[in-house]
Predict the 3D structure of the following.
Amino acid sequence: MRKSQLPIAGRRQDICTNRRGIRRNILEGLILAALRERLMAPELMTAFVTEFTAEWNRLQAVVSAEAHGRRQELVVIQRKLDGLVEAIADGLRGGDRRRASRA
């Protein structure tokens, strides 16, 4: 078979008895015609862009909401950590005072 010919897929596995192939330029032409006539139709492209944009915006809203929730959670955790650090620092300072008053 020539390089410009594409064999039938089942031919190699003996699934298909058709020994003919298709010329690459014919197959490419068929594919491009289908894309041009069926997939690139303006009304289909408009529907695709509209749906894609809507889905993209929905996903961005979900991501944004999740990020906002994580930022709020981080603020709460940071306040708790600050309180713990302050309590530890106060305990050390208070312990020094207690030791000094006992001596």
